[in-house]
Specification:
By secondary structure, this protein is of the alpha/beta class. Helix content is 54%, strand content 7%.
Length: 641
Amino acid sequence: MATVAEALNLALDHHLSGRLEEARLLYGRILEVDPDNPHALHFAGLLAAQTGAVADGVAMIGKAAALLPLAADIHGNLGKALMALGTPDGAAQASATFRRVLALQPDGAGDWFALGGALIEAGDGPAAHRALTRALTASAATDSEPLAEAFERAGLRLYAAADWAGATDAFRKARTLAPQRAEAHRMLGAALAQTGDPEGAVEALNAALRLDPTSAEAQTNLVHLLVTLGRFDEAERAGRRAVVLDPGNADAYGNMVPLLEQTVRVAEALRQCGRAARLAPERAAFQRNRLSLLLHEGRRDEAIAAGREATRLAPADAEAHLALAVALLASGQLREGWEEFEWRWETRQLDPVHRSFPQPQWTGAEDVAGRTILLYAEQGLGDTLQFVRYAPLLAARGARVVVGCSPALVRLMERVDGVSAAIAWGDELPAFDLHIPMMSLPRAFGTDLDGIPAAVPYLRADPADVAAWRERVPMDGRPRVGLVWAGSPRTVRGVASPIDRRRSLPLTALAPLAEVPGVRFVSLQMGPGAVQLAEAPVGMDIADPMGGVRDFADTAALAETLDLVITVDTSVCHLAGGLGRPTWTLSRADACWRWLGNREANPWYPTMRVFGQDRSGDWSGVVARLRAALTDFVATRSHTF
């Protein structure tokens, strides 16, 4: 009679020769005689898993592994059987099993690879990435194609978890292992875009397209990146190819929208956005895009409807709520607009300025009498200048008001009624009890269109500074008109902010103002735009005292010596308006929400007139109206020394 060992060898011979039924029967007989034989359990379990009885196989191999805890091959096969279950729990158990294998033989490249695969299926992208990296370094002989695929899958897990750096590294490794895989290049481009490297992303996507010119997804992703880089012609070619390659892809149309908006083709952008929304009616992003375009067209009621649809489709989408807030504020529906505007803190755009304090934020309901409250700047200089108007209201309630702001604003903020101290960001803050970001103040005070605190001046220059500036820029009896023609470009990787491109104009475009006789122009222009003074329009008598300006307190004192300030929509319009100076603000067609659709009279600033574009990109009509208004201003103005 054959021994158990002889029977096991015969059963294994049947198994390896493909005589599976004979092997199964013989394994069964052996286990009837010796139910705890670890080798019979191991091989019988492998056969069960191989023939579809995976759960039975897991049970038998698991029992074998328990009997031989130092047998790395049995633990490795148990991990493979657990993976064959195809469940997250099975993958998690497999991960633990492969870790036991690696504890027994830590340099096995294949085992690290197996662990990485299990961790991917278990949903642990970071750990999978680490395991696959160990597999890569453990043996240069590791098959590159499967490992590349594994790195791709790990990268996708990391990408889904917003681990952009980890995803980028995983896709780089996949590309290096298998440079012929177009998908590795494409996903590397997607990850690089998220890390803020549009040039690298474009390079990776172009590599993907060289390998697979039919990739509509790569073409679609290129569009947004090329628009970001200001390469509009290339973006348009990529967008047109994407639509041809995959006319049923909503993103192929949706990604064309920012390009068309930036190149002032709003009607076409709306058509493309409509196509995208019809293909994917559940996508809130397309309704957000429609909102922006409709505001550009001045169709504010329709924009609000698009915003409400976006928030219905995606109730937790902060970008959708913020877009709705802008539409509501632009339409004068301020109370609801302020509520929606609080969603700005849930977007990524304010991450660099979000302040986390242990003290509570003031909501408007808490008594502030006898308490110190910190008002802090959160966005641009103009926003601080506009909303510091609430400081006197808080002081009137008995609060001690401290302002945290840009160093350029400190001296001016110190002179605002009710402000006890102004602190530059970066300096040590005094003790305070409550805080509130500047642009949450209107919500806290329940500001509506009829209740805007618009008493001016609420900004005040130092009289000594004003006197000094009168000496520096002497009067000669002519009306003195300040000019600002360009905002801050706020370039990102060499590309100017799209909004700045639309709100600014060249100084030469103001040449018709030089035709108005009896005007002494004074430049208030800072930044790169100031170089245009070297080619000022013929006949424009313009002084440039800005080299002596240290901060906004100086600019305020200089503005106090002027009869009129003409400025594009930048911080100077808020400065001049807050000082109560006659101010004419040039506004783009898709006006900032605070100009309420370019109403000429603005409730935030009683001494301001808004001159809005009739058509985006066309300043000629605005300048013609400015010239006529300036002619009347000079005729009715009796200037005194």
